[in-house]
Amino acid sequence: MDIEKIRKLLEDVRAGEKGIEDAVLELRRLPYDDLGFAKVDHHRRLRRGFPEVIYCPGKALEHIVEIMRNLSEKECNILATRAEPYVFEAVKKVLPDAEYHALARCIVINRDRRRRGLGKILIITAGTADLPVAEEAALTAELMGSSVDKLYDAGVAGIHRLLGNRDMLDEANVIVVVAGMEGALASVVGGLVRVPVIAVPTSVGYGANFQGLAPLLTMLNSCASGVAVVNIDNGFGAGYMAALINMTKEEALK
Amino acid sequence: MDIEKIRKLLEDVRAGEKGIEDAVLELRRLPYDDLGFAKVDHHRRLRRGFPEVIYCPGKALEHIVEIMRNLSEKECNILATRAEPYVFEAVKKVLPDAEYHALARCIVINRDRRRRGLGKILIITAGTADLPVAEEAALTAELMGSSVDKLYDAGVAGIHRLLGNRDMLDEANVIVVVAGMEGALASVVGGLVRVPVIAVPTSVGYGANFQGLAPLLTMLNSCASGVAVVNIDNGFGAGYMAALINMTKEEALK
Amino acid sequence: MDIEKIRKLLEDVRAGEKGIEDAVLELRRLPYDDLGFAKVDHHRRLRRGFPEVIYCPGKALEHIVEIMRNLSEKECNILATRAEPYVFEAVKKVLPDAEYHALARCIVINRDRRRRGLGKILIITAGTADLPVAEEAALTAELMGSSVDKLYDAGVAGIHRLLGNRDMLDEANVIVVVAGMEGALASVVGGLVRVPVIAVPTSVGYGANFQGLAPLLTMLNSCASGVAVVNIDNGFGAGYMAALINMTKEEALK
Amino acid sequence: MDIEKIRKLLEDVRAGEKGIEDAVLELRRLPYDDLGFAKVDHHRRLRRGFPEVIYCPGKALEHIVEIMRNLSEKECNILATRAEPYVFEAVKKVLPDAEYHALARCIVINRDRRRRGLGKILIITAGTADLPVAEEAALTAELMGSSVDKLYDAGVAGIHRLLGNRDMLDEANVIVVVAGMEGALASVVGGLVRVPVIAVPTSVGYGANFQGLAPLLTMLNSCASGVAVVNIDNGFGAGYMAALINMTKEEALK
Amino acid sequence: MDIEKIRKLLEDVRAGEKGIEDAVLELRRLPYDDLGFAKVDHHRRLRRGFPEVIYCPGKALEHIVEIMRNLSEKECNILATRAEPYVFEAVKKVLPDAEYHALARCIVINRDRRRRGLGKILIITAGTADLPVAEEAALTAELMGSSVDKLYDAGVAGIHRLLGNRDMLDEANVIVVVAGMEGALASVVGGLVRVPVIAVPTSVGYGANFQGLAPLLTMLNSCASGVAVVNIDNGFGAGYMAALINMTKEEALK
Amino acid sequence: MDIEKIRKLLEDVRAGEKGIEDAVLELRRLPYDDLGFAKVDHHRRLRRGFPEVIYCPGKALEHIVEIMRNLSEKECNILATRAEPYVFEAVKKVLPDAEYHALARCIVINRDRRRRGLGKILIITAGTADLPVAEEAALTAELMGSSVDKLYDAGVAGIHRLLGNRDMLDEANVIVVVAGMEGALASVVGGLVRVPVIAVPTSVGYGANFQGLAPLLTMLNSCASGVAVVNIDNGFGAGYMAALINMTKEEALK
Amino acid sequence: MDIEKIRKLLEDVRAGEKGIEDAVLELRRLPYDDLGFAKVDHHRRLRRGFPEVIYCPGKALEHIVEIMRNLSEKECNILATRAEPYVFEAVKKVLPDAEYHALARCIVINRDRRRRGLGKILIITAGTADLPVAEEAALTAELMGSSVDKLYDAGVAGIHRLLGNRDMLDEANVIVVVAGMEGALASVVGGLVRVPVIAVPTSVGYGANFQGLAPLLTMLNSCASGVAVVNIDNGFGAGYMAALINMTKEEALK
Amino acid sequence: MDIEKIRKLLEDVRAGEKGIEDAVLELRRLPYDDLGFAKVDHHRRLRRGFPEVIYCPGKALEHIVEIMRNLSEKECNILATRAEPYVFEAVKKVLPDAEYHALARCIVINRDRRRRGLGKILIITAGTADLPVAEEAALTAELMGSSVDKLYDAGVAGIHRLLGNRDMLDEANVIVVVAGMEGALASVVGGLVRVPVIAVPTSVGYGANFQGLAPLLTMLNSCASGVAVVNIDNGFGAGYMAALINMTKEEALK
What we know:
8 copies of one chain form a homooctamer. By secondary structure, chain A is α/β, with parallel strands linked by helices. Chain A has a 5-stranded parallel beta sheet with strand order 8-7-9-10-11. The mean pLDDT of chain A is 87. Chain A is built from 12 helices and 11 strands. The first copy, chain A, has 3 domains: 30 residues; 82 residues, 2-Layer Sandwich (Ribosomal Protein S8, Chain: A, domain 1), CATH 3.30.1370; 129 residues, Rossmann fold. At the F-G interface, β11 and α11 of F face β11 and α11 of G.
């Protein structure tokens, strides 16, 4: 898959510097560490521009700690999402430079703070209850090298709060809209700007919100084009997508 | 139930002018015509302020014609919704003053054109494909005596089309918002005005509109208060509700 | 948007009393306080007839307290819904005239007790378990200046409880129907009256109630016209809509 | 399973009148005719009190004809539901005493017209569009020997049409309620009577009826007890259940 | 509604023994006690054959106690469903003859133990985890005067457990089938008997049981006729329906 | 991926018989024909034991013909599913040995009729309307070399039709159960046998079948273990899975 | 049903060694122990190849213990799934050779450790959070005599972790794929192998996973054939199905 | 909103070159043409980088023609989606340079063919039946100035068709994945690349595809990050989003 590596290997085989069985082995092996319960994908940064991210729910505490420790040996910036405080306590002991962001429920190790990207990411929320998801998005995008602006509590029930900050919208290179209830904010923002909008539905609202189903459908059906959607409450996914859009393909591998 | 009528009846019984069995019968009878296949509810205008309305789908042609003929003997204004052109052809023969509104798919007999109501009803659509539903709402409200204004194709993808007509919004006494796709328009309008908003989701849109489910959920979850919702594509219901809100209780029975 | 204000501003600019950059700024600014985590919408009462209402779930305690404090400086009547008792304890410390309504789970500050509206709002529940939602509706409508009557536990399983109170129905100017289980009460009430009915489905009932989905669909499909629906368990929304219908547009801004 | 038959068979074996292999075979065989594409269940009337009924959709025309012909050899009363007119044309040729009920979409052969049952079945519909389902129910119940009364178009939008026929309700031994839209009629009827109510949701109505899902949920959640539900538009199932309730177990096998 | 009562009243009016206004009042009043938070329906036993039943969830403790106390003054047999042990503790203090059935989660007062009904009700469960629902059904039916048999843990995964008890099926006059997982038992039982089957889906099972949705749909779609369905986990509703079927209309009012 | 092929290629490179760029190319190329609109996967039989199958809906007629022609050059047995008769007409012209199975809606080319597999596959249907799906399954399994037995119309409404054919169940090595309505047959069969059961829900039935959703959920929730499920109406998928189970891994590649 | 047994019984009757009534009884009795609350199905191992398995949720502790004790008297290998630690504590007291597998939440008694089956079962998970379900599958299959291999955390986000273990796939006789999130792994594995794949969706993931609905639909719609699906989180069901596929019908009864 | 325009206007007012009422008017007017049935949004290209696009379903033919004619006066590139051939026939008459793309069901006017954007967009489909959606996406992106590459029929059932074209993936700047059935392709592509992936679910597949719901949920739950989703079958939306990502903000307004 890595053409250069394959070419080099073939030259080594031709030159007799590498045995055939070794070559077979190498051709079938890609760089990951097998911890038994997990295969830590060290190839991911090379391939995708950012190391594997740890989604904590459902994982045993010792597994999370071990995966983070293993990643931290080879990577600069590491992210664990949906982490409870007790997880951070355990991680902190083996990785003293880990930090905890309580509102975003994230553990981060942020060693490489170089900026990348063509411009700024703007994160907008409809309400105050959408902040945890928004902060997760912001943290993710910053860890990937993007600059982030925030415009919180600008829902359409008081649309002047959005229209009055029109310049923030115009300055952004990518916009993330985080909204629960009916999620109408995504369409309205989408109709105002000339940059991509990533919409994140949240599970905030009365009964017929159905844990985020209502804003999810709203956002998928946006009458404004230039809007694409990620999973309910998935701040991480939105921040990741926004950062990816914000950088060139070349920057992605720097 | 009709206190005065009961009081009169009791006085007649006391005065010996009415036999007991007759009184029992009357006390249990309310004014409707039983056609066998249908019970035409002539009491409805007295009770509710507007005669029974005929929803055509699933009814046999001869039944529709007979019900309209029966109603037309005692009522001024009559409405049949979701009527195909061939239904109108048959009705026209027995009721020459019936009119057909093709876009709204309605047959109307409009003999009493007196205006009632505190103000105007404004009907807004998000797009051009929402017109049939909007026209059904307009026709219903007008038949009930309300004045109607229209602001069509003012969806949030180009929000200046709405904001630029802010005065129409301010002049309305009740607003009906008809929208498909994601239905965000209802929330935005709701956030701008101080009058009740009746929201009608339509089944217009791409796959995840799910025949109107998406805008239905959007409208039910409106972050702006003062928004209530009727059934998918139910222009009649919205026009009826708006007309009811627009008149006083006393006008309703005039 | 506020034409008079724009006109005055332009006159000031022409008269040289206001600099151009100042005018630009003013034209883009609308009255809200930016607390960082929230934009308190002081314009809302002007625009919509009632100040911003605080929906507590998902908001940090200190945020709720700060928003209420900020609102209380400029507004008379304030409402916080779905507030747990500990929220009230914290609010009470900074706003001594705040009151707590336990059954409705609301905190209210009620300084302006003037009545507004054309008539009375009647709130009907199908059962006793629907009381919290009904009380939230009542409290909201009263805070907005409407008089409220209550007819509780009048579900269709014993329809004489409803029919025997027919005069309460006839006296109402707007009716709010709160019902769980199958929510049939809304259609029955709708079929009896000549005033608008706002229906609120509740999440009360056995399994196939599906957290309020069953009565929600029932109410949206009401065979009686003149019924519109708000979100599941959303007593606040119903009370707000009813109060809006109950007053004239002019009263709304008093 | 048929104890007497097993006992007799064992006695025959003991007496040497039946060989063991024959007995094995008999013990494993129950009376049905295997047509290859269908196994006509001639045991059903013995076991269940009514012969197998043919649900036509999805079956080949020649299969329907052959099954009916086969049944007619051993049974008196035969029913084919959801039959298009062309099916009847084909059946008529081989079974001249077959009749077609167009509204109910049923083919019947009705040779045994004896009445069975403790009383009458009352079939109520909410509207005129529910008639095809109601007629299917009536036909089924009559074919099984029950007497049927009908009260059509008595929906809750004009509840006096129901209350004014209270004596029909009181005379019934079982009631079938057929309703589309929101299906509230089932709960209202359930709350008025002391006999079992079988509720049939129909797919009649605006968008959020969702092909009968709305009245189905309504009926399942009925706040009145004594209501049980059959499938959407399943008039046959309701008529069958009602007839079963209306007869004694002993009558069922007559 | 009560013809005799109306007739007597009219005679009293004619005889001058009752004033007109009194008569008006009586004609509009039906027997229920208004406790403010609840309208206790004392007419229900007369009308429906069994007093009002208290569904406890969502009701305040003092309300439950007061309703039970109020009912116990005029009724013999009283039932409160879904009652937690602490509810019973409170009820016990004011109604010493109340009993608690822990598995069924019911409080009962059982003063009239006369048997009514044409035969026996058989309650079958598919598994052991369906017992609470089944016991609620059994208790309800017994309180209404029916005899009840039980066949527990006879699911189709080991169908001989059902077929081996064929005589219990044959002896029953009505059958209640309680099943979670896929709920196939209802169809199988329905195919074997000649009496009505009431099916109760339960919320027992793996993920795609979706809290009882899977067996609910199974039972509604039963290929065997003579099966009708009540709400998920609604043992009370099934027991009530079965008892109603099991007695004659006349017995219902004894 | 094909280790031997890689080993050979590396040996050729070492021996200088193959240039490095050629090797790079080969290592990245797998055998498929790129027709532009389609990539015909000639590797599939090697990898999976059966050639690519053409699912016709949504494909242009000329594309289907071209894909079949291309496949027929290298494969013996070819299958096109959900093919309308006009598709067959077009295919027949270029592939004269193609056959059409109308009930199963399939086009087959069956050149290799060798039998493979450990035993027989038994295909059971609940009703006659399930035949098209069952026949698709049978045809697929036979084309893959399995012997197929059929037991049609053996639904649980007349369970003796199933129990009376117990020996067919006992002789099967794999069983496919095809059922619509409520789909209970899968659980019942699953509870009787010691071989794997593949369940196929069909979209046959009344309204709450919801196009196959009801039997799908039934089968997924089967209380009998040893049952796995394929897509609604997917006879092909069931036949494929059954044939795969019926043969050894080694046979699969013969 | 057991032909040999029936034949023997008939011979005994003929020989006069067995009385008719005894024979009747035996013919209707199959081997299960009736504990009242449960019918322990001792026939199941004979009929299906593995004894009844205890699904613990919803069952009373004493019932679980009693069922296990009863089973352990006649069976070698016993399995109780979804067992909390306190259940094991109670079981351990009466069955000292019971073992607890905490990750799989299973209690097992494993007395017969003979291997059966044509090859190996490979269990693959997409992530680390899928381990509990995977371990339940593994335990079940091993208890039934199959050899199990494991490839954990090989999801498609890093597909080289799967492709790099291609030989494990090739060695397997049956594959179980356990995946949450979107569940795409099942299709990818299905496309690579020539053996049956059993797919298990898990409830792991963000909001729109909807407790496993997303991967459930994914797996049912697999574009790769040879994939069948079991219930959400149902590791037991997958392990059982895989073991059944892995053995011959004859081995199943050993 | 357009700061420069406002500034200029204010300077004109100050200079007395513009009257106050004129300025008020201009400040409230934004450039759209009101056709009565539609408000053609000529501001959209300025604001969003591409003119309004016409979604044809539900619009009257004369409306479509008129909107296109109106747009064509001021815009270079115009797009009408989901256009039936007869629509094109009518458009062609008034706009002779309009072209029809039958597979994509689009009418385009393509006068400005300048390329914009940082790189190429790659459009991948899982199957051949996904082509109409993919072609709509391609056409949209090209009309907006992007270069487009296509990789069709590369679904995961034959993953070598994807992996063998790894270089196409590596060359793309944005990737659009179009897939029906289970939609797994989006996750697999997402896991391989370092650029944003826009996923489009299609309604292609067997029953449990549920008109695109299955791949929609799959794509929203993608375990690979960097994937965002648009509406079912919405090729236009995907092409638009991809083109937006592919260009700089500045290019968007060129």
